[in-house]
Design a protein that fits this description.
Helices cover 31% and strands 21% of the residues. It contains seven helices and twelve strands.
Length: 317
């Protein structure tokens, strides 16, 4: 099996070449995210359903189950899915081409075998085709090369997003991965309530969407493409969108405002091929945040701070 352990940190990721794998993985990650959702008290903005980037793939982190805990990991180096419980019991299966129905059946049986009796909502969210997991035999692709490349892009993005997060004193989300929208995201909050969201997200209850956008945000992330965008891209948006936001000049020069999506977009290839990819992405995150915060009149004097430094506490005057 190809091993990209020594491959470039920002690899090529042409969406058309791995679209079928991407659509399958989106549904697989939703199955795993819904397991976490079923066992975790609601956390604001649906933060309790997310996965997190690891040195090998994606993880749920610890999920409570009575007095026990367990976690589920995607390993994109060894191409395996693992469930490990706090009593030492574990289960593993290879990540390979198989239908969503077979993946779902194997995972749910494994949970039962580990005495983890979890039941989930069996329909995918935020996708046009909401065929129940147990019936979906259309999505059945897994290209290990592109799955690993996708994780490598998440790995690099996660690193830059986390640096960006340190320069904000207000409420900020973790850097986390949503299986529903299939993106890695980080969100800053002004602290002010937002107008009621109109809802209308495909196959997602309006109550969930309205709770997610209950407060004013500037949010940024990465997604691999699909729908209106047929290439991988970084994005940034504000809710509610303030007047003058979309006409603000942002960096780098390849970034633009998509009227169709209602957000700023920076093609992934513009970052991948930049002389300094880290700087290119960081400039996009900072300039689009400034566009949102300035247009909406956020209290930046109270919310912003210097980026964090390793081992040095933030100075308090």
């Amino acid at each position: 099996m190809p091993d990209l352990a020594d491959d470039e940190p920002w690899p090529e990721l042409p969406y058309a070449a791995w679209r079928e794998t991407s659509e399958t993985l989106q549904r697989w990650t939703q199955v795993i995210g819904k397991i976490r959702l079923a066992q975790t008290p609601w956390l604001n903005h649906s933060w309790h359903v997310t996965l997190y980037v690891t040195a090998r793939g994606l993880t749920t982190a610890a999920i409570p189950y009575g007095e026990r805990t367990f976690h589920i990991d995607f390993d994109f180096l060894d191409h395996a899915l693992r469930i490990e419980a706090s009593d030492g019991r574990r289960w593993e299966m290879p990540l390979r081409a198989q239908s969503v129905a077979d993946f779902y059946a194997a995972v749910m049986k494994a949970l039962d075998d580990l005495d983890l009796r979890v039941r989930i909502d069996g329909r995918p969210n935020e996708v046009a085709d909401a065929t129940p997991f147990r019936e979906d035999r259309v999505h059945a692709s897994y290209d290990p090369v592109f799955a690993q490349r996708f994780w490598r892009v998440l790995q690099q993005s996660d690193r830059i997003f986390k640096d960006f997060r340190t320069a904000f004193l207000g409420k900020s989300s973790p850097v986390h991965f949503f299986g529903g929208s299939f993106d890695l995201a980080v969100t800053r909050f002004s602290g002010r309530p937002a107008p009621l969201h109109p809802g209308g997200v495909p196959h997602l209850p309006d109550a969930v969407v309205r709770e997610a956008y209950s407060h004013e945000v500037s949010s940024a992330g990465f997604w691999p493409g699909g729908g209106a965008i047929t290439y991988p891209a970084f994005y940034s948006y504000a809710y509610p969108e303030p007047q003058g936001y979309r006409s603000t000049a942002v960096r780098p020069e390849q970034a633009f405002f998509s009227t169709e999506l209602g957000e700023f977009v920076l093609p992934y290839d513009a970052v991948r091929t930049a002389a300094d990819p880290d700087r290119a992405l960081a400039s996009f995150l900072q300039s689009t945040y400034e566009a949102a915060a300035n247009a909406a009149g956020w209290d930046r004097a109270a919310l912003d701070c210097a980026p964090g430094q390793v081992g040095i506490p933030r100075s308090i005057n």
